[in-house]
Amino acid sequence: MKTALTIAGSDSSGGAGIQADLKTFLANGVYGMSAITALTAQNTCGVRSVMNSTAEFLCDQLDAIFEDIFPDAIKIGMVSSAELIEIIAAKLKFRGAKNIVVDPVMVATSGSRLIDEDAIKTLEEKLFPLATVITPNLPELETIAATDDMELGAKKIFEQYGCAVLAKGGHGHNDANDYLFDGAGKWFYGRRIDTTNTHGTGCTLSSAIAANLAKGYNLKVSIGRAKSYLTGALSTGLNLGKGSGPLDHGFNLRGSDFND
Questions:
Q1: pTM (2 decimals)?
Q2: Domain spanning 3-235 has what CATH number?
Q3: For an engineered disulfide with 236, which of 13, 20, 41, 248 has Cβ 3.0 to 4.6 Å away?
């Protein structure tokens, strides 16, 4: 069985972060592992507080994983401090990690900020060059590339850091189209689902891409499969919580025990 590691924050409501990543790994047929960068107290309405992992504890988590079950792919999500970003980059380089998907999480779906201002440049300089692909949404693209033009922004980041860029259009108003630039440009067209329950969509897409890379699919195929999975998880109409609710990550796992 192929394996995937998520390096990200914990979401106590279960809709985003490592909880969403692990559910996505399972639904996409890989064995999931996690290294927790932060604990968050949050629900569908917002983030109440964040407690970062210590540098020493994050090191121990990463070493424990790589020394025993080497991951076939890695998804990196919320990492809020420059110190922790530098540790992750150093560990991934030392371990020879591959198939790295970086979701440059900056703001939660609810609007809460999830990264220190001084950590953004460290994220760009230390993790982007190691990434197979990064997956910024429109606000993140504008922060990183100083433009909301998906084609121009993706190309600019690729040329500066050498990583493929999947600019996600889900924050637009009319479609769910994404643009990949990996030396050449390609649009991935998607159907916009009429729902306000989008908590964890970015985490889910990036971890689904990582799962498919772990299984040996190339980047373009992995993105296409991940978008199809995300559409399915949004389409079932799961409606939990008082704010922006979570996705139905297990929509494709309806076995005989589901209704028991």
A1: 0.95
A2: 3.40.1190.20
A3: 248
